[in-house]
Automatic annotation (TrEMBL):
Belongs to the short-chain dehydrogenases/reductases (SDR) family. Pfam families: adh_short. The gene is LOC108737139. This is Farnesol dehydrogenase-like. Residues 36-63 form a coiled coil. It comes from Agrilus planipennis (Emerald ash borer). InterPro entries: NAD(P)-bd_dom_sf, Sc_DH/Rdtase_CS, SDR_fam. The keyword Coiled coil applies.
Length: 193
């Protein structure tokens, strides 16, 4: 972790759960963390708790499903905090629905957050890393459901989205090799949901 001390990390979905825990751990290790979340006030509360930590947490209001908001948030981070060195794509949702008679808006919410939001955040982080000659690290928080489809009623599209995260991570690794970028990609797993 010493290599990242004083460097900028972006954590999506930083307002609660795994995202908040990751943001907290990174700040305690000395990173400058931009916590992206729709519920900015939750990230601000965490930042107050961490005011004496080695690093610093900055709350950034972002809806990961809105491309312009994500692009603007990365511009804000670059302008106010510096170049991005680490991106932790943690934002994710699950919605109770099915394939047989499912709600297409719930499907869209899952795919827009778990896949498209991840893609946009990844693109913006890499664009910044390349512009600043940063050998960064992209971390996708995935799920066991991204490798094996569990039988959990009404969680059908969630597993498909997490399989997509697995495929996108491998695709990204290939693109890094092809473009001779010294950026790493890691997929980390949480248990099911």
């Amino acid at each position: 972790m010493e290599r990242w001390v004083g460097k900028v990390a972006v954590v999506t979905g930083a307002s609660s759960g795994i995202g908040a825990a990751i943001a907290e751990a990174l700040v305690k290790e000395g990173l400058i963390v931009a916590g992206f979340a729709r519920r900015k006030e939750k990230v601000e509360q965490l930042a107050k708790k961490l005011k004496d930590a080695k690093g610093k947490l900055h709350a950034v209001k972002v809806d990961i499903t809105k491309e312009k908001k994500v692009v603007d948030a990365f511009k804000c981070v670059k302008k106010n905090l510096g170049p991005v060195h680490v991106l932790v794509n943690n934002a994710g949702v699950a919605r109770d629905t099915s394939l047989i008679d499912g709600d297409s808006q719930k499907w869209k919410d899952i795919l827009d957050t778990n896949l498209l939001g991840l893609c946009v955040a990844t693109r913006e982080a890499i664009k910044d890393m390349k512009a600043n000659n940063v050998n960064g690290h992209i971390i996708h928080i995935n799920s066991v459901a991204g490798h094996k489809v569990p039988f959990i009623p009404f969680v059908n599209v969630y597993a498909a989205s997490k399989h997509g995260v697995t495929a996108l991570s491998e695709t990204l690794r290939h693109e890094f090799i092809q473009n001779q970028l010294k950026i790493k990609v890691t997929v980390s797993f949480k248990v099911l949901l």
